[in-house]
Amino acid sequence: MNHQMNHPPVVELENKAGCRYMLVSVVSKRARQIQDADKNTPQKPVAIAVEELDEGELNITYPPEYFQTSEK
Asked: How do the domains of the chain map onto residue ranges?
């Protein structure tokens, strides 16, 4: 059994990404890039992407809409 499933904790990754939506979006996009580049990685692409985010190797660029507030 792999005990690293929750390492790093999702809360820490969420803080690094800014929000859960951005976390899922960035990790999934990076995992697809990894899988397309090398289909025979020994580690799962999502695990690699999470590790890159945790170690600060993955930079997140937020779209301008992320910072806009809706006014009614």
From this structure: 10-61
